[in-house]
Specification:
Number of helices: 4
Shape: elongated
Order of helices and strands: HEEEHHEEH
Strand content: 5-15%
Radius of gyration: 35 Å
Helix content: 55-70%
Distance between the termini: 42 Å
Strand order of the largest sheet: 2-1-3
Largest sheet: 3 strands, antiparallel
Number of strands: 5
């Protein structure tokens, strides 16, 4: 809410400042290369013409009302989007999640069984060669796999 108020205040200041900063005369001219230029002072160029531009101050209350209407429209759209979203995952999504969970459970159980029955655990280094784990590293690896089994195999 505070952010909305700050944004609205900044927009009102910008509109008020833009209403105060206007030039009374604007001139347009074309240079020798064909580029069009604009300025607030006459240059004396033969192609120069004075543009009839008029401005009037902006009504701050109108701007504030437009900003508030924009915020209200966004809030309504968000509420409508939230209401149209399903309450939870569909039965197909739940079934796919359950299947993925069963597959991960089986994978981690097999890995844990391998860790328990293997004499020595190893990993491959960047050259593809085996690097055997010391007892602390092996124990940490077993604990990580046990945690994954507990995570995916519990109900």
């Amino acid at each position: 809410m505070l952010r909305k108020n700050v944004i609205a205040f900044i927009m009102m200041l910008a509109v008020a400042a833009a209403g105060m900063a206007f030039a009374s005369d604007i001139y347009r001219w074309t240079d020798a290369q064909g580029n069009v230029h604009y300025g607030d002072r006459p240059t004396g160029d033969p192609s120069e013409e004075r543009l009839a531009i008029s401005s009037r101050p902006t009504d701050a209350s109108t701007v504030q009302a437009q900003v508030q209407a924009s915020y209200d429209a966004r809030a309504t759209a968000k509420a409508a989007a939230a209401a149209s979203e399903p309450a939870g995952p569909s039965s197909e999504e739940l079934q796919a999640q359950a299947l993925e969970r069963q597959e991960k459970c089986a994978t981690y159980k097999a890995r844990l069984q391998k860790f328990v029955t293997s004499r020595r655990l190893y990993k491959h280094d960047e050259n593809g060669e085996r690097v055997y784990l010391d007892e602390d590293e092996a124990q940490a690896a077993r604990e990580r796999v046990e945690n994954q089994v507990a995570k995916y195999c519990s109900s």
